[in-house]
Amino acid sequence: MSDEATAFVPGHVTGFFTVSEDDDPTKAGSQGAGLALTDGVEVTVRPADEREMYLDGASIDVEPVERVLDALDADAVVTAESELPLGSGFGVSGALSLGTALAANRALGLALSENELVTIAHGAEVQSGTGLGDVVAQARGGVPIRLEPGGPQHNLLDAVPARARVEYVTFGELDTEAVLGGETDPIDEAGERALSRVVREPTLSSFIFASRRFAREAELLSERVGEAIQDVSEAGGQASMAMLGETVFALGTGLTDAGYDPEVCATHPAGAMLR
Amino acid sequence: MSDEATAFVPGHVTGFFTVSEDDDPTKAGSQGAGLALTDGVEVTVRPADEREMYLDGASIDVEPVERVLDALDADAVVTAESELPLGSGFGVSGALSLGTALAANRALGLALSENELVTIAHGAEVQSGTGLGDVVAQARGGVPIRLEPGGPQHNLLDAVPARARVEYVTFGELDTEAVLGGETDPIDEAGERALSRVVREPTLSSFIFASRRFAREAELLSERVGEAIQDVSEAGGQASMAMLGETVFALGTGLTDAGYDPEVCATHPAGAMLR
Predict the structure, then answer these.
(1) A142 part of contact set with chain B, CB < 8 Å
(2) Mean pLDDT of chain B
(3) Contact indicator for B166, B37 with CB cutoff of 8 Å
(4) Among all residues of chain A, which has the CA nearest to that of B143?
């Protein structure tokens, strides 16, 4: 096989998380929970002599994608179309990495397993400092709970058995690497409290409540994001912040009811998949 | 919450398997691999004072569903519509069990996690003798490889990262309990050989090749099923037997090309989901 192949990877907003460092990138990662989204990224891989990468028509360098292609020893043109902005807490870099791995495996006839491809994409994200838990959540779909960090050989996943309409508004970018490169103790402590709440009661309400509290306790809330969450609460809805981006997400019609003009999608019940 | 809720569970044909007994039903189960199917079962649960269960409009008793309702301490009317025949190797009893667990959790506001619900449905199947690996595969979707047996707390899953059109023809029923109740050494030996082949090369071709060889080596092939597989091979296609049913499944247009008039579906990329 040497045709092109396309994979779709759902977006993923993390509601809360902890940071687990490890020298082995397949063990490093994060605990936490989030929502896999029907808005996502479509990645097409075509074997070629020289590597090129395009996102929404523009040439781009994405370190974890380079690392995935290195790990697969693959030269290819990677063309991605994203319904979601980069750097705003939607797991776009994770989606690019995982989509490249899945599509390259098929386009180049590499015969790797799903876990192997997820492991490669997860490790590439961790080593690039661009994400810790998006890839494994995007591979699962739904409303994943990351009980233990790492790639598929080491982690432990569960999920909230629910679906929801999801609205979101993005005010700008946050640099994942800068936030995760700093002091993470307050994040870890708040993340562990949030996780034990959701484990005790794995429902959407408890997820969004725990996420909102985490954002405040971990001191990650910007003014604009805090205001929007407050607006949604006052309108009787449920919202929190997408980690890590200047993005507010709400369940149901939370942002609309509060007078915002949000993008609308839903939880994506499946994980990443070949087209 | 006390409204009704509906879940869809994909069908699942197992290509090959091993039998792992254990006193703890969450550890018992099987290794193996199969295809989750877009043809499946829709299960609606409505809270009620007395338990009733209907499949395609007819009253029916399904032991694992009873066990699921017992485990959830739930009284409800369970109404299921199946695109697939019972007792023919499509995991319909697993689908009924898992669909009941997911829908009851929502209808009755039980706040259990996905893993907890899958564990209950898996355990109910094992204790009823109606299945060993369908439930965990149906919860994952795609082309699941069961590397280690048991429910989500104990097993280890991987998958073939691929999608396919799937055709099938059913000649009749096989009694899972009768087959699994007998001598399983030849099954286990053949199943382990098939699994190591698919682990070495996790592709659809290798899955179907390993499945066909397993069916022969484990001596589970009936004459009619063997003939149909042979017909597909002679027409240049790939088919094997659904474990455990008098059912032949083929990739692509295998059965059509061999002159059969099959049902047509595809691999279902998502696992079981609420509607």
Answers:
(1) yes
(2) 95
(3) yes
(4) A114
Question: Considering only CB atoms, which chain B residues are within 8 Å of A110?
Answer: none
Element (H, E) at B257: helix B254-257
User: Structure pTM?
Assistant: 0.95
pLDDT, one tens digit per residue, over A15-60 is 999 999 999 999 999 999 999 999 999 999 999 999 999 999 999 9
Interface contact B76, partner A, CB < 8 A? no
pLDDT over 80 at A3, yes or no: yes
State percent of chain A over pLDDT 70.
Answer: 99
- DSSP label at B237? -
Q: Which domains does chain A have, with CATH numbers?
A: 5-10+37-145 (3.30.230.10)
Residues 91-130 of A with CB under 8 A from B: 102, 105-106, 111-115, 117
CA B8 – CA B6 distance, rounded (Å):
7
Q: What is the pLDDT of residues B221-248, one digit of tens each?
A: 889 999 999 999 999 999 999 998 999 9
C-alpha B151/C-alpha B139 separation (Å) is: 11
In total, chain A counts a number of residues equal to 275
Residue B241 structure tokens: 């037997």
For residue B199, CA distances in Å to A184, A244, B33 come to: 39, 36, 10
Torsion-angle region of A116 (φ positive above 0: left; ψ -120 to 50: alpha; else: beta): alpha
Q: Is a pLDDT exceeding 60 seen at residue A2?
A: no
Output the CA torsion sign for A245, A247, A248, A251.
negative
Q: Which of residues 13-52 of B touch A (CB under 8 A)?
A: none
Nearest to B135 by CA among B125, B127, B143, B144: B125
Q: Measured in whole angstroms, how far is the alpha carbon of residue A113 from the centre of its chain?
A: 21
Give me the total of CB pairs closer than 8 Å, taking one residue from chain A and one from chain B.
Answer: 75
**Does B115 sit within 8 Å of A158, measured CB to CB?**
yes
Q: Is ipTM strictly over 0.90? A: yes
